[in-house]
Write a structure and sequence with these properties.
512 residues; alpha/beta; Rossmann fold; 7-stranded mixed sheet; 18 helices; 23% strand; disordered N terminus; ATP binding; repeat; nucleotide-binding; ATP hydrolysis activity
Length: 512
């Protein structure tokens, strides 16, 4: 690890030391001898692009995943964190970006779940409410502790999750992108809480892609890239540009441009505006027939929200033109009628019915009724051409789709839209997540084949190299807005990555 500085008294025994952490998944080395050292009373920022290995490392720290190799020490003592319960018992509290609160319980019940004050078997509700109120007040919350969590705004839910960490007396508190759902005032409150926690000697690991936050609240930062810890920075002496360069890597090669002829002519899809207050405000994106338009952005940048809105599945206001007309995309059914198709990020929960057969899954949109009500022969007849065209490998059309490989499952999701016919706009959200290299290449060949038939494709991916290799243009979303559009034939990947992380284009950076 290259150290560009050290922060804090070096003679302190580290509060947390993670050494040589290795975690393998099928086809992926998520952590490659990663290291992280956090001192008592320190706010330590963990930085890296999507897929750098940050989340895996924190899940290992929380006890949710077990490392294949490596050692974890807390205050100098080796620990084995074999479960989330073991992590909490050791003094680790993780506040995930995707909150793990129990939505049907109250704020007070969530804060002291499993730890409520009791007299014998009877919970002391009044005392629980007092303790909850103290924790919520500390994070600056002004909502009642007897409110049901699912009825609260998302910012209040985030503050509840932070308050819960305060009630555990944790030694290490991990905050994963806390500002993604917080306004400026709430973020100020959270920063005050962080400063009070570190003043007590507790340690905070702060994960964020926002350089201004990192520079304001952090003492030191560890940068991860490709599963490795590549550098440690003293934030009092570092610059945002240094951090971004470390995240991107100096050896980033120029992009390999797509060799498809660039589609010309008028746009098929014109996204005039997609707006949901506090989440997304995207304007003036056009996609021509046959064009693959990439959507790049960090987690929380708005890519999934944009695609879901175009598919009629969020509370966003949507103004689009499709081949000159103005469809009302008020529901997924309306979007399908207009010729839109969505391949969602979570194929197993949102794209497939794992217990049903390959044929029934592939024919579901074409049948016009619940697939279990249609005759087997009808489903097979409608599904077989699409499955064959995509090269789906299965033993029988009656085989449960959940038994297929990930790549073949993803092809079945795509097949159900091809089997229906009338496809005009294909929305792809992280379509290659969890696929091996061969399956990725096969899927993109099928996507390009659809584009060659005149389909307009919007492709969202965290893998920037996949976008630059397969998209005709790459739109960058940052904090809910589209901030730039690049031609991967003429723009190097490092420039696009810099905009993805900072929201700045070369022009805006020069002007500042």
């Amino acid at each position: 690890m290259n150290a560009s500085g050290t922060g804090g008294p070096s003679e302190l025994t580290p509060r947390l030391s993670m050494r040589g952490i290795v975690k393998r998944f099928p086809g992926t080395l998520a952590n490659d001898h990663a290291e992280l050292t956090v001192l008592p009373g320190e706010t330590h920022c963990l930085l890296g692009e999507n897929g750098a290995g940050k989340s895996t490392l924190m899940k290992i720290l929380a006890g949710s995943l077990q490392p294949d190799e490596g050692e974890i020490r807390l205050d100098g003592e080796p620990v084995r964190l074999t479960s989330p319960q073991a992590g909490m018992a050791a003094g680790i509290s993780v506040i995930y970006q995707e909150l793990d609160l129990v939505p049907d319980l109250t704020v007070a019940q969530n804060l002291l779940l499993g730890r409520a004050p009791a007299r014998g078997p009877v919970i002391r509700r009044g005392r629980r409410a007092e303790l909850a109120r103290e924790a919520i007040d500390r994070v600056g919350g002004d909502f009642p502790v007897n409110a049901v969590v699912r009825e609260l705004p998302i910012a209040a839910q985030q503050l509840t999750a932070i308050a819960r960490a305060l009630t555990t007396q944790a030694r290490v508190i991990v905050m994963d992108e806390p500002s993604a759902t917080l306004g400026e005032n709430d973020l100020r409150k959270v920063f005050d809480v962080i400063r009070s926690l570190t003043a007590e000697g507790r340690s905070v690991i702060y994960i964020s892609h926002r350089m201004d936050e990192v520079m304001e609240i952090g003492d030191r930062a560890t940068v991860m890239r490709d599963g490795r810890s590549v550098s440690v920075h003293d934030l009092a002496r570092a610059t945002p540009d240094e951090l971004v360069a470390a995240m991107i890597g100096e050896s980033r090669e120029l992009v390999r441009p797509t060799d498809r002829p660039r589609p010309e002519g008028p746009a098929l899809l014109e996204i005039r505006r997609v707006h949901r207050p506090g989440l997304i405000d995207v304007r003036d994106i056009e996609v021509r027939p046959g064009e693959v338009a990439g959507l790049a952005g960090l987690g929380g940048a708005g890519r999934t929200t944009l695609l879901s809105a175009l598919f009629g599945d969020t509370g966003a206001s949507v103004s689009v033109r499709l081949d000159g007309a103005e469809p009302r995309l008020s529901s997924p059914a309306a979007a399908v009628r207009a010729g839109f198709a969505l391949v969602p990020e979570n194929r197993k929960e949102q794209g497939l019915m794992p217990g049903l057969s390959v044929a029934r899954n592939a024919a579901v949109t074409a049948l016009g009724r619940p697939p279990w009500l249609a005759p087997h022969t009808t489903g097979r007849r409608r599904a077989t051409p699409a499955l064959s065209g995509l090269g789906v490998k299965y033993s029988s059309p009656d085989q449960p789709v959940g038994k297929l490989s990930g790549g073949n499952q993803q092809k079945v999701v795509l097949a159900k839209w091809i089997a229906k016919g009338g496809l005009r706009v294909l929305l792809l959200d992280e379509p290659t997540r969890g696929l091996d290299v061969g399956a990725k290449a096969d899927l993109y060949r099928q996507v390009r084949h659809l584009a060659d038939q005149g389909v307009a494709v919007l492709l969202a991916s965290s893998e920037l190299n996949e976008l630059t290799a397969n998209a005709d243009r790459v739109w960058v979303l940052h904090e809910g807005r589209n901030v730039a559009c690049y031609d991967p034939r003429t723009t190097d990947e490092a420039t696009i990555a810099h905009t993805v992380i900072t929201g700045e284009t070369p022009a805006t950076k020069a002007a500042s």
